[in-house]
Amino acid sequence: MDQAKKKPKKPWRRPRHRVYRILFEWAVFIYTRLAYHIRVERFKRAKKEQFFILMNHQTAFDQFFVEMAFRTPVYYVASEDLFSKGWLSRIIEHVVAPIPIKKSVTDMKAVKTCVRVCREGGTIAIAPEGNRTYSGVTESIKPSITGLIRLLRIPVAIFRIEGGYGVHPRWSDVIRKGKIQARVTRVIEPAEYATMTDEELFDIVSRELYWDDTTIGGEYRHKKAAEYLERAMYVCPDCGLSEWESQKDVICCKKCGRRVRYLPDLRLEGLGRPFPFTYVKDWYRYQEKFVCNLDPAAYTEAPVYEDKAALSRVILYKHKESIANEVTVRLWGDRMQLIGADVNIALPFDEVSVMSVLGRNKLNIYIGQELYQLKGGKRFNAVKYVNFYYHYDNVKRGVEYGELQFLGL
């Protein structure tokens, strides 16, 4: 008997995507302008050509800045969490058809979908950092982006957002007033990158996407300027591994009492005595170096940190199942443990495959066939768990202590 022929795949690009974009664009643009006061330079070539857009990742609204510049349906590569929200995810998929990707891993299915959209004539956008910056400086970019560029073989548009961190830091709940702009800074044509080595292409992409918000000048004012900076910071220059608590424009170390003010020009000011770091970026890099010098084996007897969080099981690309409204989350140098009324889940780092931070304070943990998600309270710091896990993994693979390491962000 003849094998049944496979039904052809429906096109990823649909006429409705352009219709929805026309229907909603003015509402979205008006809200975005009112909220961020952003200046976006329109990219005139977008009407006639397709592009592979590479953008830096500064705010939760970055995709709308791209839309304002390109004025055409854009297919965004988005993390799997967006597709695990049940009916809301189905609406998003119907309206804009983002391309799902597993965060912090090489996802060949996502690559194949990008090729499919490209062949259909679609414009694709991705943030190669894979993470929104916590420090105001462009984060680590994987060299594998050059392979995807060569696979798609279309013009690459570098889209850079400047001032997004100043206006809305990832660790903050509030939007501040200040200078923010976005534009295409360079187009790399296929004929141009065809003559380059992967190293040369990666160097250009990295340099063009790199941005440091402390170089802008100007001020970003809000009475709650420092609130929830503890979502990113957990190392004190005086007492090492610690916890911080913020209120209005001041953050305080709960261990030694060190107090620091976050100023409108993004500088840090020590209260009572000088603070050794001028900007959050300096403090953040010190924190990374501090962790890179830790011996994980020295932190296996007692928990280093303990937090409370809601625990869910993520059914990828479908929905989330609540396991417990609150569990105690404990961190050691080589493992984590989740403990609740009916929950006792051990998470040895040797068995964890990926750990990633989503949004401001959510933590995804892949272990075996399971994907657990922790959502902490307002002051929950998910960064430290990711940093500890990746440092342990780096040490296991033979990376020297103190050597600059990728710590998951």
Radius of gyration equals 22 Å
In CATH terms, the superfamily of the largest domain is: Glycerol-3-phosphate (1)-acyltransferase
What structural category characterises the helix and strand content?
alpha+beta
| Main sheet makeup | 7 strands, mixed
CATH fold-level assignment of the largest domain: Glycerol-3-phosphate (1)-acyltransferase
Strand content: 25-35%
Going by CATH, the architecture of the largest domain would be: 3-Layer(aba) Sandwich
Count of the domains: 3
CATH class assignment of the largest domain: Alpha Beta
Which residues form runs of ≥5 with pLDDT under 50? none
Q: Give the SSE order as H and E letters.
A: HEEHEHEHEHEHEHHEEEEEEHEEEEEEEH
Helix content: 25-40%
User: What's the average pLDDT?
Assistant: 91
**Termini, distance in Å?**
53 Å
Strand order of the largest sheet: 1-7-6-2-5-3-4
Discrete helix count: 10
Query: How many DSSP-defined strands?
Result: 20
Shape, per Cα inertia axes: globular
What does this structure look like?
26% of the residues lie in helices and 27% in strands. It is an alpha+beta fold and 409 residues long. It folds into three domains: 198 residues, Glycerol-3-phosphate (1)-acyltransferase, CATH 3.40.1130; 64 residues, no CATH class; 100 residues, Pleckstrin-homology domain (PH domain)/Phosphotyrosine-binding domain (PTB) (PH-domain like), CATH 2.30.29.30. The strands form four sheets. The chain has a seven-stranded mixed sheet with strand order 1-7-6-2-5-3-4, sandwiched between helices. Helix 1 crosses helix 2. The protein is globular, with a radius of gyration of 22 Å.
